[in-house]
Amino acid sequence: MSADSSAQGAIGRDEILGIVRDRLADILEIDPSSISEGQSFVDDLDADSLALIELVEALEEELSERTTGFRIDDEDLADLKTVRDAVDYVHERTRGDA
User: Fold this and answer.
1) Burial of 6 (0-12, 13-18, 19+ CB in 10 A)
2) Sign (positive/negative) of CA torsion 49, 28, 18, 44?
3) DSSP secondary structure, 34-94, as one string
4) Between these two residues, 20 and 96, which has the higher pLDDT value?
5) How far is 96 from 24, CA to CA, in rounded Å?
6) Which residues, 6+ apart, have CB-to-CB distance to 11 below 8 Å?
7) What are the tens digits of pLDDT across the range 62-78?
8) What is the DSSP letter of 11?
9) Assessment of whether the complete model's pTM goes beyond 0.70
10) What is the DSSP letter of 95?
């Protein structure tokens, strides 16, 4: 039961990276271990805009269960160019009640 109380706290950055990698790997049909933080969605991973929208929807679905009302704003999507950008964005949005 004590794990439950910590699960409601901020989600760790490493855990967010794992979630982003897993969802992206499913969408792009590639091995999650082949995805690194420094990679560009478009240039390195050949992710098109549809793949990025699918990633956003998958992240919102998974993280909204853990962080009430979690959303990635449409206007912020253009700023998410790399895996690191997405992880940092999610990490910032899931810390506390910001």
Assistant:
1) exposed
2) negative
3) G--TT-BTTTTT---HHHHHHHHHHHHHHHHTTSTT----HHHHTT--BHHHHHHHHHHHH
4) 20
5) 25
6) 63, 66, 67, 90, 91, 94
7) 998 888 889 999 899 88
8) P
9) yes
10) S
- What positions carry a catalytic annotation? 48
For residue 73 the two structure tokens come to 């704003």
Residue 1 banded pLDDT, cuts 50, 70, 90:
very low
Count of all residues that appear for the chain in the document: 98
User: What is the C-alpha separation between 95 and 36, in angstroms, rounded?
Assistant: 23
- CA 24 centroid distance within chain: 9
Crossing angle between the packed helical segments 83-94 and 13-28, to the nearest 10 degrees? 130
